[in-house]
Amino acid sequence: MKIHKLVMKKARIEIIPMIDAIFFLLVFFMFSSLSMIRMRGANVSLPAGSGGKGAVTPGEAPKLVVSVTTNGTYFLNKKAISRQTLQSSLQDEVSARANSVVVVNMAKNQTTQTLVDVLDSINKVKTPAGVSAPVLIATEPVDTEGRPIDTQTR
Question: What's the pLDDT score for residue 40?
């Protein structure tokens, strides 16, 4: 009788499970590092959509336009005012016009700090109901090169 010798197979290292384990560790460390980062940002009241609560439709509320020009001149409804009197002038206008909406129109060369200062002044203005006045930020349409489009000649 002949006894067959068992042939020893060469051991193999499978790489697929190792790749799976490394990707699992990568994902774990990515999510755990993201949870360690404290996200900081300014609280902003965002406008609601057209069907949402608090949406403003055109013609519904009077607009109070606060403009800051390229040279830093402040205007309230095309009337020049100083930075120091912005809040008091705006408070008078908001008190006189119920349900008014404040529209902020900033020149492109103005800093973000100027925008934040204007928004801070507007946030301190209270309506007759005792809440902050609603604010919209006007944007300017531009072409593909970034030049302003004159919408009034169209």
Answer: 75
